[in-house]
Amino acid sequence: MYMLGQICRFAVGVLEKGKSPPLAMRDALAVAMKLFHVEFDPSQNWAMKLKDNALQAAGLIFIAHPTLMVKSEADGLVSSTISVEAPAKLKIRCLGNLLELLKSEEDRLLVKQKDGDEEVKEKQMLASSGIRVSAAVALQTQNGEGDSVSLASGLIQRYWDRVLKLATDVPIKGENTREDAQETVMAVRQRAFELMEAVLRAGLVAPWTAVPHMVALSTDP
């Protein structure tokens, strides 16, 4: 699972050499989701680790092909692992996947902006030298990068309420009072807060939607 996710994320060109690149990515996602949904005994640590690795691979595939994340199967996967009822390990992984997706989209935009600035400067230099510059040609896109802003914003808005709930989630009184359980809850809330910070900084949601939860966090002992 780890290698599959890494290939899809960083060596997508290997999969895109075939006749149907999106199909190859969908097949990779199908493998990850199939392993995630395998029935197992919750008490088995290796089985939970398998789910975690499958979810990690799915997150890397979503970064490589963000459009796959809008599919109903992918939506069900994310919704089930970002809910309050999900195991803490899976909640942390899912929040991390969303955070990495935002960072990846932000990096893509910065690269495109830099390339655009360099292209403009180059054309200005050629024009000042008396060299005729041809009309601008649309840049080739890869992995759905042209949909970055609207797609990332739409996905975050879809799961925003769930993220806010995880950021302020506390164990029910009388349950999960062990120290290790408390630390696990805090780890989930910390990751949710990191995602909130990234989303608000990028301006993907209305900031006032997070005000009540930020106030609650500021008064939390």
From TrEMBL:
The keyword Nucleus applies. GO terms for biological process: chromatin looping; establishment of mitotic sister chromatid cohesion; establishment of protein localization to chromatin; regulation of gene expression; replication-born double-strand break repair via sister chromatid exchange. The keyword Cell membrane does not apply. Signal peptide: none annotated. It is found in: Nucleus. It comes from the Eukaryota. Residues 152-221 form the Sister chromatid cohesion C-terminal domain. InterPro entries: Nipped-B_C, Scc2/Nipped-B. Keywords: Cell cycle, Nucleus, Repeat. One of its GO terms (cellular component) is Scc2-Scc4 cohesin loading complex. Belongs to the SCC2/Nipped-B family. This is Sister chromatid cohesion protein. It comes from Tetraselmis chuii. The lineage of its organism: Eukaryota, Viridiplantae, Chlorophyta, core chlorophytes, Chlorodendrophyceae.
